[in-house]
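Quick one: Serine/threonine-protein phosphatase from Streptomyces platensis, structure tokens please.
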Amino acid sequence: MPSLAPRWPRYVEFAPSVLVAGGLVWDAFSPADYWGDPMLTAASVMAGALLSLRHTLAIGAAIVGGVFALTVKDGTAGDIVGYLELINTLFAALMGVGVNRVIARHGRHLDVVRSVAEAAQRAVLPAPPERIGPLAVAARYQAAQSEARIGGDAYAVQRTPFGVRLLIADVRGKGLGAVGAVSVLLGAFREAAEEEPDLATLADRMERALLRESEHTSEEDRLEGFITALLCEVLPGAAGLRMLNCGHPSPYLCHDDEVRVLEAGDPGLPLGMGTLGVDRTLPADRPFPAGSTLLLITDGVTEARDATGRFYDPAAQLAGHGPFRGPQDVIDRLVRDVERWTGGPRDDDMAVLAVTRQMAGGMRAPHRGSSPVR
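--- reply ---
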């Protein structure tokens, strides 16, 4: 489990040593009325915030030792001025150690909180089976590293009498409220997917379940709560796909070296906003040929930014990286590429669901050397 501590650039770790050297040189060669103590104090505190305990102690020892050597050089080692100088320096070194211990304790607490959050997320959002009907399936949920809160991204795959149905959704907000909404959403999807003959009535069933649940929440949550969702239905016996867009980002179709946006039709209102009285948009039919992979994402993917603030574009960044060896390979490459793009912690959760349609006579199994579904 990755640590929640900030990942500083490597060169920042040298700043305390530079400040120590600068402060001691300043003390050694500047006039008596000009002291380098502020630089030494800053070095100690910075070391406590950035470095390990061992390195913080080393910085503190270097400061105390350096100041003691300067008092000997100046002839103040045995008088009140020298003693006060050493006491001030020792206090600064101890302050750096204290800062280090507070940050370490806080980091351990955040690690525990995050592990609990991830366990709860896995309980609410279990990994789908690797094969359902004509599809090979893979999914992954990646929590944002900038905070230890349970997110509201969700996905599900269900084999029904009407074909294999897929769901990917993003609940507004985080924490226990988002987990409750995800639980209601997935429960309603799994029940209604078996019974409703089309995606529009399936979405209506899910909408009603969410509205019933919202009766037990505050008025503010009812007004502001909503869920963007994309419902898909892999049509049996045909190389086609039916999609209903409830305000969610469109999926991508990966085939050989090509990755392109598969427009999911006009985006309708998100789920949970049915009280506005707006008619639901119509489903859209799109081709889903054998051997191709459908990639469903949440906005944690498309809103990932690089150092210059540019948004990540899966179609542009993944194109030319094929051929893909199944859904798990697509997800592995996508996650690695997003992490490369951001170059550090993400600010949003990221959920991805990928399904590959088998070719006639079966397709090769998904690449087994890739990371397990989480």
